[in-house]
Structure formats: C-alpha cells, structure tokens
Amino acid sequence: MSNPVNIKFSDASLALIQNIMSRYPEGKQKSALIPVLHIAQADFDGWLSPQTMDLVASVLKIQSVEVYEVASFYSMFHLAPVGNCVFDVCRTSSCWSRGADNIIAHIGKRLGIKPGETTSDGMFTLKAVECLGSCGTAPMLQCGASFHENLTPEKVDALIDSYRAAGTRRSYTDMDYKNTL
Amino acid sequence: MAKVTIDGQTVEVPDGTTILQAARMIGGDVAPPTMCYHSKLKTSGGYCRTCIVKVSKGSDKDPRPMPKLVASCRTTVMDGMEVQNNTSPEVVDARKGVVEFLLINHPLDCPVCDQAGECHLQDLGYKNGGEGTRFDFERRTFERKDIGDKIQLHMNRCILCYRCVKTADQICDGRVHGVMNRGDVSEISTYIEKAIDNDFSGNMIDVCPVGALTDKTFRFKSRVWFTKPMDAHRDCKKCSGKVTLWEKGDEVLRVTGRKDQWGEVEEWICNDCRFDHKKITDWVIEGPRKIDHKSVISQNHYMKLAQPHYKKLDK
Amino acid sequence: MGKKLLIHNDKVPGIHTLEVYRQHGGYASVEKALKTMSPEAIVEEVKKSGLRGRGGAGFPTGMKWSFLAKPEGVARYLVCNADESEPGTFKDRYLMEKIPHALVEGMITSSFALGAKTSYIYIRGEYFYVARILEAAIAEAYAAGFLGKNILGTGYDLDLYVQVGAGAYICGEETALLESLEGKRGNPRIKPPFPAIAGLYGCPTVVNNVETIAAVVPIINMGGEEYAKIGIGRSTGTKLISASGHINKPGVYEIELGLPVEEFIYSDEYCGGIWKNKKMKACIPGGSSVPILPTELLLKTAAGEPRLMSYESLSDGGFATGSMLGSGGFIVFDEDTNIAENLYTFTRFYHHESCGQCSPCREGTGWMEKIAHRIVHGHGKASDIDLLWDIQKRIEGNTICPLGDAAAWPVASAIRHFRAEFEAMIPKTELAH
C-alpha cells in the first residue's frame, strides 16, 4: 500500500499523467513510474520528498517502496532539495580531455561551492556527472532540459548571469529548452 | 530426462533442472556453493556468482562449450552436458575472486555477529577464499537504520543477495523494504523509518545468508554453537508450526524455521511461532536437530587450523 | 566521398518537419513496405543487407529479428534503444535531433515487419529535449496517417510512444532497458530467457539501436542486396561515427564501412587531424568500453595492414593488438594526454554506473576506481598496477551483463599498452620496496 498523502498534482499534470498511463497495456501502469517521477520532481520544488513519492505511488496504485527503489536508482532524481538551477557538468573522458575539470573548478569558484553543494541563496547546485552524450561539443553542462556546449569560462559566466537574472527553477521537463549542437 | 556429468559424475535429471540442482543430487563437494540462491524462493539466484561453473560441453546435440562461466543456479541442463566445478582451475580461481569481492567491504565483525557459526559467508570464505586481503581502503559503511523491534538490520554485513526482498514479495503480505540506491552503495532499507512487521516477516532472518538480518529477541544471548537445536512443533493456525528451537539449559533462546542440508529453509514459519512462543512448554519436542550444513564451527575447522600453533606454543 | 544514407540531409532547413522530410523522399519505405511487401519479405531484405546492430555488439539484425517468437494471441513489441550512454557516443542524439522522422519511419517499417502493434522509443532522460523533438515528429506522423489505425489504408495499426529514462548507463543493456520501461530499477535480467522469447511484459520483444532502425529505411528503399554492396566484407553499409577528443573537427560523421582509419582522422572531410598541430598518442575507436590503442596499432594492424573502419579490421589481432568498432564512439588523444588519468575517468564512470546486482561488478568497479584514483594522485603502490590487472580479469566474463566486461576492458588495454605511464606515476619511494 502507498502511504497516505496530503498533497495533490495540478489538474494539468494529472491529465498528462493519465495520458502517459494510457500508453501501456492494461495492468502495466507501473511503466509510467519514471515519466511520472519526472513530472513530480518538476512540480514539487525540484526534488522528490518521501511525501511526493508517496503521492506518485497513490496515483499509480503501487506500493511506496516500489517508488523509493526506483527513484533512488536513477541519477536524475534528486532525493534532497536542490537549487533552482542544477548544473550537471560532464567530466568523463572526452569532456575531461577538453578541460571539464577547469570548467567545474571555474563554476565552483564563481559560485563559492563545491560539486554536490548548493549556493546559500538556493539558486544553483553544482554537480559533476558522468557522460551526457555531448562528447563532440565538449566540455558541456546540462541545466534543466538545456545542453550548453563548447563551454569556456566566459560562456559559463554569461550562463550563470542569465540564469540568475531569470531566477526561475529549471526542470528536465522544460519545454523552452536550448541546445547548441 | 537429461544426462549431465559434473566433475566426472553422471546423473540423470528431469528436463528443466538447473546445473546446481543436478549437482546437489550428486551431492557432496560436487555441489557448488551458493549465497543468493534459495530453493524455496522463485527467481532467486544469479547475483552473487559464487556458484559459477564451466560448461565444457553444451549437450550431445551441440557439444560446443559455453564461452563464459555460468551461474549454475540459473542455467538448465541439456542432455549430454558436461560441467566442471572443482575440477576446473578457472572456476576455482574465479570463485576465489568472487569471495574476495564479497569480502572487501564486509566488516569481518564475526566476533560480535550473531550469525557467526552459521554464516554462509564464513563457510564460503573458509572453503573457497584466499588468505588475507588485498583491499587496503576504508571499508564501506552505512548509516544504521531501524526496521522494527523484531529484526535487526546490519547493512554493513549485507551481500545484496535479494533473498529478503524476494521473501517479502513472495511470502509476506506486502513489502515495505527493498533495495535502495545503486551500485556499491545499494542498501536494504525501508527508505523512511518503518517497521517491517507482518505475520511472516521473520522468515527474512532465516533466509539471510549473513548477519545482516538477525533476530533482535536473540541478540547477544549466546553464540549459536553453545545452543542445542531441537526440532519441535505446535498447532498453529498461521503456519505449519514446524520449527527448530535453539535451547540453552531449559531456556528457548531462539525459534527458527528448519533448514535443509544446504542451509535453506524447509518450511516458512509465522512470527507468532518465532517470536511469541519461547517456552519449552509451548512446544512438542521431536528430538535433536541434525545440522547438516557444513558450518565452520560445526566442522571444527578453526581448531584444526589452530592446533599446529598450539603445539608450537606447547614446546 | 563515401556514400551517405542516414544523415545526408542533415543540413537541409526544416528537415525535422514531416513536410520537408517527405519532399526529400521521406516515408517512401513505409509506403513500399506496408503496401507491397509481406513482413517476412522485409525481414528477408534486412537479412540480405548484412546490417549489424549499431549499438555496439554488431549482432546481425536480420538474424535477431528472425529469432522473435510468434506465439498465437500474444503481443509482440519493438523497442528502440535510444539510451545512448556509452562515453564517446552521441550519434543517435544527432540523428534524432536533426532528422527525427528517419527514426519514426524506421520504427514503422520495422514494427510492421515484426508484427508489433505498439512500439516504444526508450530515450535516456538527459535527452529530454530530444524526446520533445521526437514527440513532435510522431504527432506529425499520426496526423499524416503514418501512425495509428489502418495506416495508409493497409489495415495495419501501430502506436508509437517515447519513454524517457532518468539517468542510468545500464539501461542501454537491453534487458535493463526493458525493466526500466516497466517502471523498475534498471537491473539487467538473467538470461535466458532472451527478449526474443520473453521481453517487455514477458512478451516476445526486439530491442534495436536508433541507428539500426534508421538503417532499415535505406535498406527497404534500395533493397538488401544493394545495401550489402556498400561497405566491406561482412561490414556492410554505412556507420555513424561520433568523433571527439583532441581533433580539429569533433562531430558526427557518416562513413562507408571500410574507410581507412588514417583517412578518417586526418582527412578534412572528417576529423581534420589532431588539434593544435600535435601528434596523436592513442585512440579509443568504439566507445569507452573498447580497448584503447596506441597510434601505431590504431593506424596499422600488428601484421602491418592499414587499419580500416570496419568490424573485422578494428578487431584484427584480438585484444592483444586490436580493439572493436563498438558503438563508433571515436575518442582521440594527443601526445600530451595522460592515459592513466583518462582511465581514471572511466573507472569512475563504471563504478558510478554499476547497477549493483552482481558482486564482481558491484565491488570490483569501486575497487578499481579507488586504485586508479590513488595512482593518478601520486599515492600509488608498486603492486597497484598488477592488482588492477588482476581485478579486471576477475570481473571480466563473470558478471550478469556486459557492463562487467565494459568496465574491465579499458583497464586491461590501458595497462597492456601504456604500462610505463602508470609506473611513472607511482612514487619512486614505493618502487624501491
């Protein structure tokens, strides 16, 4: 059984969830779990609290523990609060070979945080992550749905400024994505 | 029926039998060691890789050897198959590697572990492992999490065999614990603090091959080798009521399910029998339980190992 | 200039729209297949084409399709593996982003061939924006009657959905992908049974890489025999190569299989040579999992033959002196690269991505990362290199899925070919012992 919850999805999100659930055969609605967790993370402050995960369990009519197991497996789900803008900076081979470590260090210095940390104003979280499939445009970072590629310290500075000026939370599910491929 | 030869011994088994089951029919050392397989749990096995064997001949029909070592618990026999277990140096070495992998992050806290003496990892390490360790980093540790008043979870000792998860799925009424996170920080957990408590949850203790899940009501009461196992039964509405009592003097220190020669539970028992009937008068005693599973302690291996040293000291 | 069949139109403005895509001959394969061919005939053409799986393993696609069980009254599924996560590989992303209809078209034709009524494209979560592009293309295809009920009046029904993952390399392994698609942890299944017998929801399922599916389009259009004439030997057709690292022109290139490696690296049509006028030191030709090769073994086989971009040539010499074409993730390193440091990024990667189900991979990948970390940070021990070698050997072949091998091979090859670089990083005081 899922645990009792006292939060709700918006009507728009619920409609989308119903649509997603219709994509699978009868009785296989658990298949919607990962897409629905993405929606939940975007809707509820950018992270998956136990309460949020229990809500997902109740909507999909599965046990809460099934949601916890899955949410904790995948690296894009945040199980603790994060900043409005999460910078996922790739550091694997190709990005490493073209200066990813310098980019991470530069962002860290600029924001005054280390990888894994969030700025005190709650604006930015810095994460050093593994290959994001942008090796030909290395170094790169992902923020929300957007890929920022061929990074230089100057580009990173501009990026930080523009995200700070916008001030909004960025989610993987954003429709206004950018990419520079 | 299929004829299969394992370490030179041939046995005829029904189609669909696994190599492991066939080897167990032959018995003795031919049977590969197991950690995660459990005959009473569906879809168990395949994870720990201790039971890997070499298939040197696939079948009479297709005699080609299998390219990799295979998990004997999850590979079915074919007619004419030839398998090498102890007779393959490759298997012996790979298994030694598996033991090493299982132990690099294990706390080796056997002196304070209630499982010591009936621990499958001890047995495995003794029989199939190498000496010493080449792992010189800090061992992985987990934050201690409470999962209720009956079962103690020591995640540091867990080898992620998934047996307790499958038990909860297949035996219990609803599962509240599972495997969280991934890779080498995977852990057995309820995620949010929650008691694992339903009529059959205690069976998770019995299926745990190591000291990760132990009986809180037995905690630090006695080393198992100082207790006397007795088969007993009672009329129980929930389960068969067939158990093993672990006695010390007139006291029942622990109640467990009965385990077969491979250390696997024969019949599931309910929590009533396990936790709430600890008086000898609750039970009809059948007689002493023979512990077939070759535990380190029951074999007196340590004494054999230690004796030469004692002799030296005597001189 | 080699033949291009997959991304020849990538620079055409608006090619991501159905209208422009159709103007350039798009969806012809669907018309031809559904109206004039039987499913069996399509499978036959794919067999004749010699197409091999483009995800990395290189298994013949037609053969994989013919293994699909067809029990009465049981649904069959085609699932496209768009979980592109092998470091050094970004070709599928390029194809899907630039020409999304190429994948949609291939999915329709392939689904028809396999008798699937519902198909899924499982795409890695990080490619969320690419999923949006695909969804827009799929919506166009529905509106144009290429998807949904009674496609082109042929009576064939097909629904096609995009499913996003959430960050897990292991979901590129086909059974882990199916688990993930079922809403579970991405734990690879123990095989057998293989997906062709029991895959998605326990039903017969084919899982194919994006590029493989897209290649079905030209195969149907030109015929399997014509396709098989392209390329070299058993490496038929064209291949997308993701080129990255220290080259002048990183990017995605479509090559005719059989192109000399040297030409690929130094020709202006492709990588354009090594950056900053430097020399090449080493290359990983097929994604992070495949063995790294020093320049001399990359350009020529041990027997002195010129090395070609093909399955056979790149693996010539086995792991002793060869590598693999793999996913076509071509990572080049210049003379200043520290191979041990690069290896450290891989050990970290595989440690991070191990699902944790089986003990050799779960424990071994973390151990290798720790040792590699120690070596590149100058705290290595004299015994560390041999220990690394030993650990990778005990992981290889002993795990549930190929991630164990994928983690082991880069370690083995880096030590095999660049042992001196590792030794140079071990403190002298250590070596004296």
Please give a structural write-up:
The complex is a heterotrimer of chains A (181), B (315) and C (433). Chain A has helices at residues 11-21, 33-43, 50-60, 64-71, 93-97, 100-111, 153-166; strands at residues 85-90, 124-129, 141-143, 146-148. Chain A has 181 residues and is an alpha+beta fold. Chain A has 2 domains: 11-71; 85-166, Glutaredoxin. Chain A starts with 10 loop residues before the first helix and ends in a 15-residue tail after the last helix. Chain B is α+β, with helices and mostly antiparallel strands. In chain B, the strands form 4 sheets. In chain B, strands 2-1-5-3-4 form a 5-stranded mixed β-sheet, sandwiched between helices. Chain B starts with a strand and ends with a helix. Chain B is built from 7 helices and 13 strands. In chain B, β7 (178-180) and β8 (187-189) form a beta hairpin. Chain B has 2 domains: 2-97, Ubiquitin-like (UB roll) (Roll); 110-132 and 140-288, Alpha-Beta Plaits (2-Layer Sandwich). Helix content of chain C is 44%, strand content 13%. In chain C, α2 (28-36) runs parallel beside α6, α16 (359-376) runs antiparallel to α17 and α16 runs parallel beside α18. The interface between A and C is large, with 49 and 60 residues.
